[in-house]
Design a protein that fits this description.
One of its GO terms (cellular component) is membrane. Helix content is 82%, strand content 0%. By secondary structure, the protein is an all-alpha fold. It has a single domain (14-421), classed as MFS general substrate transporter like domains (Growth Hormone, Chain: A), CATH 1.20.1250.20.
């Protein structure tokens, strides 16, 4: 469908033009990922360069907890943003909560990367604000995009995540290397404001929800077996795919890669690879389905982890070995984005349209909870066990997830058939 025709249909339903919605939410998705890129990709490398241990780095990453537990307050956010019987108020919610995130990131600029306790507090505030804005953004996107246009919103979400991580984990590292911590972090705070402007300029004309509609709740989500098995699917897949993510940046730094080089790899290389994987997902999903893609990407991931483990055991530091490691990272980025696209495509079929924001937030929170558990484990034992053991353990977990996926897929299919029969 053409953009012109989609815009005409949106006007007929009283919705904003889809292009305006996609650009608006896309800016917010990029901004949220800028914060994540700074905290979870850029900062660990800066801390390692400053002599921090893997345990210190793992401590800082507790600031992912708001993303892990945002499901707890997601019904409250949605009731505030979209009160039944009254007009939606997404823009005031995003503006108010987003201001706390910008202020907290600016505070990080003056705290510095070595003052762990105050830095963790400021990061926690920024992460809480970012996670809350994400709940409101997802709800706005679902309400203001017709069902046939929501694929555009999904592209904005996936692409925005990679672009934001490129800025926060790539451009940020280059700026730190050349300007220092404070100016680089302030530039990121200004970028957040600029990225929010398109959304704050959009109109919100989604229909008002009936005053008699039941309120959104976690209980309604957890009573549905499709959601419960979706949570299991997320947990298994994340254990297989994400638990070694914390180690890659510090390992490359220890192997002799400079901050600027790592910034270029994380910025341009990982972003391009990730976008290729994400945007190829639409075609591949239609042809092969979600579970075969998830299995294939897990298999590639396991092979990559074994490659990292071999380099770690051999203590490879030559330019050729570093080139191999960077290549493995780029291939891993492409397959990871493709696998996550398949995963969340599968999860979309498990979401109730009556409270899509709450259901989808549950899945995202499970992703974050399992991720942070793995990062804490690898960070706590990484210094004692070494990179080689950690990478091989992660590869074994990936292989276990690969074996478990078919059974979960069969159960998911039976639940759908039962639901349709009912």
């Amino acid at each position: 469908m053409s953009v012109r025709r989609a815009s005409a249909e949106a006007r007929d339903r009283g919705l904003p033009p889809p292009a305006a919605v996609v650009i608006g939410v896309g800016g917010l998705y990029v901004a949220q990922s800028v914060i994540g890129g700074v905290f979870f990709t850029g900062l660990p490398a800066v801390m390692r360069k400053s002599g921090a241990s893997l345990n210190d780095i793992a401590f800082i990453l507790i600031t992912v907890l708001p993303w892990s537990f945002k499901f707890v307050w997601s019904p409250l956010v949605e009731r505030w943003r979209a009160p039944h019987g009254r007009p939606k108020r997404s823009r005031p919610v995003v503006a108010a909560i987003g201001a706390f995130g910008v202020g907290a990131l600016a505070a990080c600029a003056f705290i510095g990367p070595t003052a762990l306790a105050p830095l963790a507090v400021a990061m926690m505030v920024a992460s809480f604000a970012s996670a809350t804005v994400d709940i409101a953004t997802d709800g706005y996107a679902v309400e203001n995009l017709a069902a046939k246009n929501r694929g555009w919103g999904n592209s904005a979400q996936v692409g925005g995540a990679y672009l934001g991580n490129a800025i926060g984990g790539g451009v940020f590292l280059i700026l730190v290397d050349h300007l220092g911590w404070t100016p680089a972090t302030l530039v990121m705070a200004v970028a957040l404001v600029a990225l929010a402007v398109p959304f704050l300029a959009t109109r919100e004309t989604a229909p008002v929800t009936s005053k008699d509609a039941p309120p959104q709740s976690l209980g309604a989500a957890l009573r549905r077996p499709e959601v419960r098995y979706g949570l299991l699917l997320v947990a298994v897949y994340v254990v297989g795919q994400k638990w070694a993510a914390l180690l890659v940046g510090p390992f490359l730094i220890d192997a002799g890669v400079s901050l600027s080089t790592l910034g270029v790899v994380n910025g341009a290389g990982v972003t391009v690879s990730g976008l290729i994987g994400a945007f190829s997902g639409g075609y591949l999903l239609r042809r092969f389905g979600a579970y075969p893609i998830m299995q294939a990407t897990l298999a590639v991931h396991v092979i990559g982890l074994i490659g990292f483990a071999v380099c770690a055991y051999l203590q490879a530091r030559s330019p050729a070995a570093i080139a191999v490691l960077v290549g493995l990272q780029l291939v891993g980025a492409a397959t990871f984005s493709l696998g996550v696209t398949a995963l969340y495509s599968e999860l979309m079929g498990r979401v109730s349209l009556a409270q899509a924001g709450v259901d989808f937030t549950l899945f995202q929170s499970m992703d974050a909870i399992v991720s942070v558990i793995g990062w804490q484990i690898t960070g706590s034992f990484g210094d004692r066990l070494g990179y080689g053991v950690c990478f091989m353990t992660a590869a074994a977990l990936g292989l276990a997830a690969l074996v478990a996926l078919p059974a979960i897929g069969r159960r998911g299919s039976s639940l759908r058939q039962a639901d349709q029969g009912a």
